[in-house]
Amino acid sequence: MSGLKGQDSTYIPVIDISTADEQTGHDLVDAVVQSGFVFIKSKGLGVDAQTINRMFEISCAFFESPQEDKERCKMHTNNRGWTRMGEEVLDEKLGDPKEGFNFGEFVNGEAQQPLTPSLQAHEAECSHFADLCRSLCLRLLELFAVGLNIDPLQGGSSWFSSRHDASKGPSGTILRLLYYPALPSSSQTSTIRAGAHSDYGSLTLLFRLPSQSGLEILTTSNTWMPVPVLPNGTENDPFPPILVNIGDLLSYWTNGLLKSTMHRVVFPSKEEAEDRYSMAYFFHPCKDTKLVSVPSEMVTARGKAGNQGQVLTAMEHLKGRLAATYGWGTEEQKV
């Protein structure tokens, strides 16, 4: 296990999950207990550089689409579709200066939402990429379960993955395309491109272009640390390391042992100013999944006290977070 050290004690390991064994599971748990983030190597598991670059080409073409095409796909309270500049508010009074497009779950290779012509032409490729991300997340969840030594009589290695089984019902899983336009320094009212937040689901896979930094994570000493796009020496890997972070739900399930870390995106220096593109796959469990503590002695011994109040479902948690982000209120939302 190798890794990256930041300006303080925060450490982002690089772990190879192409071989799924007990040691890999323990390494993953140790990694995210410390920082909530980990780079994974996944040679042979489908998410190669060519596939990632192709998705960025599709994303760039979408954001260059005519405004009227994007307007026909604008997001409603189902958390699917296009968001305009400033629509998403994470931790700033002003909305984030970015655009986004959320794909919900695909069914038999087809998106269950309106698409622009540019996305319709590549629907199959987008669906395939989402499938690859899903498979990768399921592998990670099984490894985390192994690393936590979850009681085999109560689910063992499938404790997490069984709660993300698409055959049991829909979820809030989202494949998101993001575009942060370069802004003249005279028009910037903040140094922030995406406000500080934790992620709402179980796991997030994050994909970025090599030259486009800006992601920062909040360290244990309450300072912001930049995260490199790729670990040193991996820039030309055919299967580039993928950045993974723990979401709120894995943190809930493990009583905070697995860390859902605050992170943000900042504008680069004036010399590095350019349009920024990224993609994120937000993996969520089935909607009715209850956020109860996992049956793990490790979690009992090392986690915080479990939730003693009302037990939320995955969808109740998601609705609350989306309402705060987009100002949708607390009325019943169809997600």
Describe this structure in words.
By secondary structure, this protein is of the alpha+beta class. It contains eight helices and 15 strands. It has helices spanning 22-34, 49-63, 67-71, 117-120, 123-147, 248-253, 297-302, 314-326; strands at 2-5, 11-16, 37-41, 81-83, 99-103, 106-107, 110-111, 174-180, 192-197, 203-208, 215-218, 224-226, 242-246, 263-266, 276-283. The strands form three sheets. It has a nine-stranded mixed β-sheet. A four-stranded antiparallel β-sheet has the order 9-14-11-12, with no helix packed on it. β11 (215-218) and β12 form a beta hairpin. The chain is globular and about 55 Å long. It starts with a strand and ends in a 9-residue tail after the last helix.
Offer a concise description of the structure.
The protein has 8 helices and 15 strands.
